[in-house]
Structures are given as structure tokens and as C-alpha cells.
Amino acid sequence: MKKINIILADGSRLFANALKTILSEEQDFNVVSDVYCGIEAIRNVQVLRPDILVLGQVLPDITMFQVVREIYRDIKSIRFLFIVKDGNSELLKFLSEVQTIGVIRHNTDVSELIVALRSIAKGERYISKDVLNDLRYVPEEPDGKDLLREITPREREVLYWLSQGQNNREIAATMILSEKTIKNHITHLLKKLKVADRTKAAAIAWAEGLPLIPEEFFFPSGGR
Questions:
Q1: What are phi and psi of 126, to 5 degrees?
Q2: Is 110 found in the same domain as 21?
């Protein structure tokens, strides 16, 4: 069995050590390092090249987002699991830009932690329901209607891939369209959703549950 190599990083030594003990009991996990600050997390990832970096929200030196930005410049294959106390706008930005990421609450059950890690290891996203509730987008003038009601099926698919963290070039490749066409779709999307940028558009998508639809929904049987 190929083991999933994991680095743990959290400002609390007790929490990190407890996680290490828990994960060491699972046959498919191998905790190669546990550290207690962001800089050490970056250094260990660069040397050990784990499959997953588990990051706690409270680090004593830099934020979890700074850690990801620094690592992601050089290592695109690594996956991240955030353990957070609550959702916020910066977390939402990462959900809309970084594909290889999972998020759970710090008070989650151990069983959900294990499910999240195994899902991320397979290249899937894992966003806990509690975190999704934190990230709910509330329009300035809520009217109780479907926020995606005005967009076309093609624009809905563009929004789906955008909310999964793909850039225009990646969306174009996925949908077999030109980047110019994708850019036009996004321009129309922003106008219809009455938002100024793609991060806010992704927030609406997450609020409506669009990113949780299986990818296969957009690929009819037999593929494109």
C-alpha cells in the first residue's frame, strides 16, 4: 500500500502532536514531520515533498495563506488541508483560486478529518458543511430568489469551473473553447450576478452549492 505522506503545521504543539498520534494509527497515512510555525512548514515541504500539508489557522509567524502562496510558487502537486475556526473572505478567495485544497473546522470529528485527507489525496476537494455555512454569500438586497436564475447553462458551467479554482486558460481547455470566449462569458456572468470580480462570483456559486455538483454532470456520457 502506497502511503500518503503528510506534514502537520499548527501553532499549538499539543494539537499537532495529538493529530500525529491519531493519524499514525491509520495504515495509509505517514506523518513525515510536525512543525509549529509557517516558516518551518515551508522548509519541511521543500525538503520532504509530502503529498499533503495540513495547516492550522493559527501560526505564530505567518498566516496559512502566506504559507500556501510561498509553497505553491515552486510545488504545484502538493495538496492542502486547512483546519479553521471559521470561514472568512480570504479563505473564500483561496477556494476560488486553488484546486488542491480542503477545509474542515477545528472542532470536527476525527472520522471527518480522515475522510477529508483521503479525499484530498485522490485529488478531490473536501469542504465541510460547517465551513460552507460560514462562507454563505448574502446579497445586499436579498429577494429569496435563485441567484443563478439569469445565467445561461453555458455560463453556469463557466461559473462552475471558475469556482473550482480554474483560470481562464484552464476553463477554455476543459470546455474546449477559446480563452476569448471564456473571458466574454465571465464578463456576462459578472454583469448578471451584479458583482465586480470573479471572487465574488465564486462566493455566489459556493452559496448556491454549485461547486458541489459532481464534475461528471458537465460531461455527458461518452465525454465531450
A1: -140, 110
A2: yes
Cell numbers that stand for 154 in this block: 453555458
Contact of 48 with 20, CB cutoff 8 Å:
no
Neighbours of 108 (CB within 10 A): 15
- Identify whether the C-beta of residue 104 lies closer than 8 Å to the C-beta of residue 128: yes
Which pLDDT tens digit goes with each residue over 117-173?
A: 998 998 877 888 777 766 654 444 444 456 788 899 899 999 999 888 788 998 999
Which grid coordinates belong to 150?
Answer: 439569469
pTM strictly above 0.85: no
Which CA distances in Å does 196 have to 27, 191, 192? 47, 8, 11
In order of 156, 183, 210, the CA distances from 189 in angstroms are 8, 10, 14
Sign of CA dihedral 101, 107, 108, 113: positive
Do 13 and 101 sit in the same domain of this protein?
A: yes
In a domain, 140, yes or no: no
Find the length of the chain: 224
Question: Do the domain assignments include residue 143?
Answer: no
Residue 61's domain is classified under what CATH number?
A: 3.40.50.2300
- Report the domain count for the chain: 2
Fill in the DSSP letter of residue 161: H
Residue 127 contacts residue 102 (beta carbons within 8 Å): yes
d(CA 35, CA 128): 24
